[in-house]
Amino acid sequence: MRRPRPSRSRRGITGALAAVAVGAAVCAAAPQAATAATADVAAASARSASHPTGPLGVDASRWQSPGSTTGACGSIVPDWRRVRDTHRFLVHRAAVTLADGTNSVDPCYRAAAVAARAAGLYRGAYMYVRPSTTAGSAAASARFLVAATGRLQEPGDLPPVLDLEVSGGLTPAQLQAWVRTWLTTVQRLTNRTPVVYTTPSFWRGAMADSTAFHAYPLWIAHWGPRTPSVPGGWPTWTLWQYSATGSVAGIRTDVDLDAFNGDAAGLRAFAHPSTTISTTTTGARAFRGSTWTLRGRLTTTGPSSAAAGRAVKLLVRAKGSSAAWRQVATTTTSAGGAFAFVRRPSSAWEYKVRFSGSRAVAASWSTERAHTISDRYAAEVTATTSATRVARGHAVTVRGSLRRTASKLPLTGKSLRVYTKRTAKGSKWVLAKSVRTSAVRGTYRATLHPTTSVSVKVVFAGSTANRPDTSPVHRLSVR
């Protein structure tokens, strides 16, 4: 990040800038503009702070890729695989506001992001801004960054960063409003909570030590001390830039050194953990007119709670088709990340489940699921009674079987209902018994104790693969 300091490898963004000394020192090789952060530079001596205990990282820009003076990325680029041997994350400058108020993309950002990902580094992007009173400049700056980086929704993507080091002549109230607009715009466009990078003295001066930004993680630049000073009433820092002149294997220039305030699991959660969608179905064949269910679970490498209460979408297309997927349903995961979609298909379909990601975890797709389609089989319920005339309250046995009509295959373990209806005019069918067919032969048996003459029937409501059916009606006379 561009900051005033006694020596710096990222010399000026638009060419030579006015040199500012700390005390009597003058940086003649590459002068840079002064900001309110000079007090922090004074606090940093030539010594480096001892390494913090959390995971380490670096932040870089085109100045870590020398070899070009044309505004392009230089030919000497960092070896991010070597950097990965000692450090866990990279935050690279993606965009910058130039002195004339226009915004520009860092020419090295895209290649660095791709290479860092391949090397296994968590990676993020920052934008060095120059706030101004120009109407809409904050939102325009935020949109420019997102256009350069995308929504940063891939696993391992760190949140976007606002690099706030100059006030642009704004009053504290104006600057606070500008910063708030920038942050909320980025948050709306990316669904990520941006990070605020600043120095203690700048925040306390230019931002009047505002305590209104605690919802955004703090990246504090404070070189020299063993622990950083935290401004603005933030309860703690999330990232700490503890040195501006670090040396890291794989980078030929000096580079900023950073630390994460936590452990490896905490960094993984902060860096947009990956998600996985696992699915199962009721089968590779669906039956027309019956339900077919796709169940699944959303899991994450971050906190398990991040998979709860998330919207997941079901997309379909005709089986074997190359047509575009279309969304047909949305549901919300349970506390454990589980979900289910119940369909009643009439054709053969392919399915995918999509989680669009959130501020806490990355997006993901499930593997494809598909089914063929078949008509349900015709079924037949038979029924006989042990007698047609009985004494009041005496037992009558109703027995029979349930089979497929064409194949005569017994339908085992199926639920049947026995209904009775009085013979009086206007009487309605009443459920008398519920039974299940046997496990081998598909037979059933039910015992009734009628107290008045009734009609009896047995009903199969149907199942996934079998059509419903009703037995012939039998008359029981009670004497």
* Low-confidence regions: 3-49
Distance between the termini: 100 Å
- CA radius of gyration: 35 Å
Report mean pLDDT, rounded to a whole number: 89
Task: Outline the structure in words.
With 479 residues, this protein is α/β, with parallel strands linked by helices. It has 7 helices and 28 strands. The strands form 5 sheets. Strands 1-2-4-5-6-7-8-9 form an 8-stranded mixed β-barrel. Strands 11, 13, 14, 16, 17 and 18 form a 6-stranded mixed β-sheet that branches. Strands 21, 23, 24, 26, 27 and 28 form a 6-stranded mixed β-sheet that branches. Helix 4 packs parallel to helix 5.
Give the gist of this structure:
With 479 residues, the chain is α/β, with parallel strands linked by helices.
Topology of this structure?
Elements: H1 38-43, E1 56-60, H2 80-84, E2 89-97, E3 103-105, H3 109-119, E4 122-128, H4 137-149, E5 161-163, H5 172-190, E6 195-198, H6 200-206, E7 218-221, E8 239-246, E9 255-260, H7 264-270, E10 275-281, E11 285-287, E12 292-300, E13 311-318, E14 326-332, E15 338-343, E16 349-355, E17 364-365, E18 369-374, E19 379-381, E20 384-385, E21 389-390, E22 396-404, E23 415-422, E24 430-436, E25 443-448, E26 454-460, E27 469-470, E28 474-478
Parallel strand pairs: 1-2, 2-4, 4-5, 5-6, 6-7, 7-8, 11-18, 21-28
Antiparallel strand pairs: 1-9, 2-3, 8-9, 10-12, 12-15, 13-14, 13-16, 16-17, 16-18, 19-22, 20-22, 22-25, 23-24, 23-26, 26-27, 26-28
Helix pairs in contact: 4-5
